[in-house]
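no rush on this but wanted to send it before i forget. theres a chain ive been looking at and ive put its sequence and its fold in token form underneath. please have a look and point out which stretches look like helix strand or loop to you. thanks a lot i owe you, the record is right below:
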Amino acid sequence: MNPSVPKSTTSRDFSLCPICQSLGKVLHEALTDYWFGSSGTWRMLRCSRSTCGAFWLSPQPTPKKLAIAYSSYYTHTATVVPTSHKNWLRKSLKRLAGIEHRKSRIQRMFLGDVKPGRLLDVGCGNGDRLVMFRKLGWQVEGQEVDPSAHAVAVSRGLCVHLGDLSELALEPESFDAITMNHVIEHVADAAELLNECRRLLAPDGRLIITTPNGSGLGHRVFGARWRGLEPPRHLMVHTQNSLRVLCKQSGYTAIDTRTETANAHYFFAESILTNRKFSQGWARRLVHITSWALHIVAIGLNCISRSLGEEVVVIARRYAMPL
């Protein structure tokens, strides 16, 4: 899930935005890893330029610290799909609110209506998404730098390349679709990654990115405890604006951005559960009720502002063709 890491062996301080070089202002101090328990505290800055607005860790963690932070990461095992019967009321409410449809679209990376071709999943982790796309008729390949996650993916009969994407020397213009699901926030040099993706895209191919939205409702409500921050693995947290700037810098000429609420319940519940007193019994049930209520609110607000979803989605092409 982490397609590249900082190459420096020492922590580096970044006072300027890695994307637009504007001055960074302190957003959060003493952030901790609530979710996977890696040691240390972290400072996060926000770009002062309103047309960018990216967040980043400063100083950046060393490769050694990142390796420890990823040692128990969730992409190291294959996902087991539960077979228990879902609560019929919850399922009905999700359908009524359009949540199931939104989740289906984002799970398929907005490729549900696209004719299958050759697909590369960057930072593919344990290969769950590749398995899904293979069932949908795509010719799939993946890329991963984490040896543990790579081993799991290969054990499932998947073609997955181990190593940094820029060092794999894959054939240019060879993929009809390149997907990055919650990957770019883990990347030390996002511009280098997007440049390489553009090189690999077929002339009419498309790049699809999903990532936590730093301008979304969740961060506004939960602040330093918002699930999308996840220090130290999330080196940068993006906005629609920062990703548009990045894509333009990398030469993409057709760029569509939006925000999505499909997984808002997850972001909200995980943010609340950073307070351990809510993690047991009826308190935990109350967390999920509250999270679903906030999810419905988020859907309504995002229909008005179009910028408050928990995830940013980018669909970009090398050339200006209809999306």
